[in-house]
Specification:
Structural class: mainly alpha
CATH superfamily of the largest domain: HUPs
Oligomer: single chain
CATH architecture of the largest domain: 3-Layer(aba) Sandwich
Largest sheet: 3 strands, parallel
Strand order of the largest sheet: 1-2-3
Bound molecules: adenosine-5'-diphosphate, tryptophan
Distance between the termini: 33 Å
Low-confidence stretches: none
Helix content: 55-70%
Mean pLDDT: 97
Length: 334
């Protein structure tokens, strides 16, 4: 049987939040259950270096992302679970890919374009504060994806452009050397592509509007109560489709619970009650994993053990791809 390769990474630049879980971790874990899939999930620590320059925080964030995956059910016997910085072939391939990536393609990357626009609005040099790490971010990500012959990449919608770029870059390489690299495709669930944050915008560490997956349950309740709502009175019917509370609820509740809450939206309920219902399903879901998470964070050696095993398995694939790429390009010992 020809297995499909599923790969995704989470940047370790802060505590993982509900958006990461719903948009990437949950679909990735579901895909990994399928025996027709070979799954590789990793911690994108060198991607975090584009913004995170504190070594202690860097190490801690890496553990937070690793503990999150493990606590939420990643089975390291089944999934190749590794740290990006443990696989030097990623950085070797990144250089090769850079030689097949037009500068124009990188000029169109969302994160870079957003920086340029901000600079233009502030009336400063377009590239102020832009380092090459930010500019080349999509090439490093393409390398993560292409090195492992990934077919499907489960992510939230914000990452779709990066995966299209990886496909583009692989196409440019293959146009010269033949079908050496596998062309990847994004795997995005339209219903959960963009999870809303506390303020209704996309939940993101960069907007400071996140609900972290792990931490004190009292804090979790406080944050849920802070989700912005409109001023519709309790008795008025409410539209679940436009309610971020309902959207979050759907990812954690059973079908019966979802239908029951939908009914209450139609007959009218106070936003406070809706938030309480959301908090309850969240807490019921997170309570067990939180214990595993806390235990792993207290024993990073356990995390390191899993990552050491994953590193070996990842490098076996990585060195085979690099041999193929080097041969295609014509570098190294003949
Ligand atoms: P952040 O935007 O908070 O920095 P990351 O960029 O580290 O999050 O995202 C890691 C993964 O989680 C990616 O696949 C991304 O698409 C997904 N993701 C992040 N935020 C959301 C969101 N609000 N909705 C859906 N998916 C998300
Ligand atoms: N750039 C992704 C993010 O910010 C993280 C990431 C790095 C990734 N490499 C990847 C995701 C490869 C999928 C595949 O969320």
């Amino acid at each position: 049987m020809n297995k499909k390769t599923i790969l995704t990474g989470i940047k370790s630049s802060g505590r993982p939040h509900l958006g990461n879980y719903i948009g990437a971790i949950k679909p990735a874990l579901a895909l990994a259950q399928n025996p027709a899939h070979e799954a590789l999930y990793f911690i994108a620590d060198y991607h975090a270096l584009t913004t995170l320059h504190d070594p202690k925080e860097m190490r801690h964030s890496g553990y937070e992302v690793a503990a999150t995956w493990l606590a939420l059910g990643l089975d390291p016997a089944r999934v190749v679970f590794f740290r990006q910085s443990d696989v030097p072939e990623i950085f070797e391939l990144a250089w090769v890919l850079a030689c097949f990536t037009s500068k124009g393609l990188m000029n169109r990357a969302h994160a870079y374009k957003a920086m340029v626009q901000k600079n233009q609005e502030a009336g400063v040099d377009e590239d102020a504060g832009v380092h090459m790490g930010l500019y080349e971010y999509p090439i490093l990500m393409a390398s993560d994806i292409l090195l492992f012959d990934s077919h499907l990449v489960p992510v939230g919608k914000d990452q779709a452009q990066h995966i299209e770029m990886a496909a583009d870059i692989a196409g440019s390489f293959n146009a010269v050397y033949g079908p050496v690299l596998t062309i990847p495709a994004p795997y995005i669930n339209e219903a959960t592509a963009t999870v809303p944050g506390l303020d209704g915008r996309k939940m993101s560490k960069s907007y400071d509007n996140v609900i972290p997956l792990f931490g004190d349950p009292k804090k979790l309740r406080k944050l849920v109560m802070r989700i912005v709502t409109d001023s519709t009175p309790p008795e008025a019917p409410k539209d679940p489709a436009t309610s971020s509370i309902f959207q979050l609820y759907e990812s954690f509740a059973t079908p019966e619970q979802i239908e029951a809450l939908r009914g209450r939206y139609q007959t009218g309920l106070g936003w406070g009650e809706a938030k309480q219902a959301l908090y309850e399903v969240l807490e019921a879901f997170l309570e067990g994993p939180r214990k595993v998470y806390d235990d792993l964070m207290a024993h990073p050696d356990i995390i390191e053990g899993h990552l050491a095993a994953g590193r070996e398995r990842a490098r076996t694939v990585a060195t085979a791809t690099m041999d193929r790429v080097r041969k295609a390009v014509g570098v190294g010992r003949a």
